[in-house]
């Protein structure tokens, strides 16, 4: 019996253990809501990138004769705006600026905030106090008011909008990064790296960064939905993109006077902002659940 059991064990193929990120990928691929949201986002991003090759009308060319056409009008499937410009073309081309202004500040804040939080959480002491107390100053102001104040001080423009939103999001990501790093710095593998003679920069870059990036990345993904809304709000107030550039927030501003004449066309930029924001939000929730392997 013992010989037979040994033979069976030797004949059984060795199964390779699935890694952490492979498990996360498998879990999120089974989340139908996350996959639908990812598909919608990829479709919007690809359509914005490939807009010049889609055979769309000129998003800048208008005509007062065909202004405020309704949805379903021949040659204008989504109608026209207050200046007679094709809404479908302006929505797709507008996705370029809207996505850049919405996503780029989060990427910049992710890099800056992760670096500050990693240093503050690992070094601790007075440096931690100096960084975190400086970060706490920004929490005295709501995100919307802080973004409006910075954009108003810098002036209207795409670059200034990106700078103002980056400043708004850096404190939030820094706080999360510092909290995660503080929980990791006393683990056994960090102590082993210290005992082996590795320097602080090497420990943070090689041993700790990979272990803290996951939660920070998930949190930053959730901030993209907030960034999209804030960016659209700045453009709506005249602090972001300038006319005649197509941008969803600016389009909402220019179409607000036509809401009683053609409300469905006037609501289309808001629908795009809502769709992208909710997709990023749901995708972030799916990633958070997939990364929590204990559940």
Automatic annotation (TrEMBL):
SUPFAM superfamilies: MetI-like (SSF161098). Pfam families: BPD_transp_1 (PF00528), OppC_N (PF12911). Residues 95-284 form the ABC transmembrane type-1 domain. Its main location: membrane. The keyword DNA damage does not apply. The chain crosses the membrane at residues 33-57, 97-124, 144-170, 212-239, 259-283. Signal peptide: none annotated. PROSITE patterns: ABC_TM1. The keyword Membrane applies. It comes from the Bacteria. InterPro entries: BP-dependent_transpt_permease, MetI-like, MetI-like_sf, OppC_N. It is found in: Cell membrane. It is a multi-pass membrane protein. Coiled coil: none annotated. Keywords: Cell membrane, Membrane, Transmembrane, Transmembrane helix, Transport. Belongs to the binding-protein-dependent transport system permease family. This is Peptide/nickel transport system permease protein. It comes from Bradyrhizobium algeriense.
């Amino acid at each position: 019996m013992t010989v037979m059991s040994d033979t069976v064990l030797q004949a059984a193929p060795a199964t390779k253990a699935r890694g952490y990120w492979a498990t996360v990928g498998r879990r999120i691929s089974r989340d139908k809501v996350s996959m639908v949201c990812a598909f919608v986002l990829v479709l919007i991003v690809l359509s914005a990138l490939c807009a010049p090759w889609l055979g769309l009308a000129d998003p800048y060319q208008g005509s007062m004769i065909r202004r405020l056409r309704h949805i379903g009008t021949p040659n204008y499937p989504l109608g026209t705006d207050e200046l007679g410009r094709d809404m479908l073309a302006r929505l797709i081309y507008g996705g370029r600026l809207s996505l850049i202004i919405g996503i780029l500040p989060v990427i910049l804040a992710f890099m800056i905030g992760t670096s500050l939080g990693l240093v503050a959480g690992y070094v601790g002491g007075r440096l931690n106090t100096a960084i975190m107390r400086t970060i706490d100053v920004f929490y005295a102001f709501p995100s919307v008011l802080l973004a409006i104040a910075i954009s108003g001080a810098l002036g209207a423009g795409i670059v200034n909008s990106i700078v103002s939103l980056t400043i708004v999001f850096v404190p939030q990501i820094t706080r999360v990064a510092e909290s995660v790093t503080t929980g990791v710095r006393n683990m056994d593998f960090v102590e082993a790296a210290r005992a082996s003679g590795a320097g602080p920069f090497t420990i943070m870059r090689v041993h700790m960064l990979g272990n803290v990036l996951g939660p920070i990345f998930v949190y930053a993904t959730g901030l993209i939905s907030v960034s999209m809304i804030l960016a659209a709000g700045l453009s709506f107030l005249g602090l972001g993109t300038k006319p005649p550039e197509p941008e969803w927030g600016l389009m909402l501003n220019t179409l607000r006077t036509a809401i009683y004449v053609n409300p469905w066309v006037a609501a289309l930029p808001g629908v795009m902002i809502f769709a992208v924001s909710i997709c990023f939000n749901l995708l972030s929730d799916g990633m958070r659940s997939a990364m929590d392997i204990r559940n």
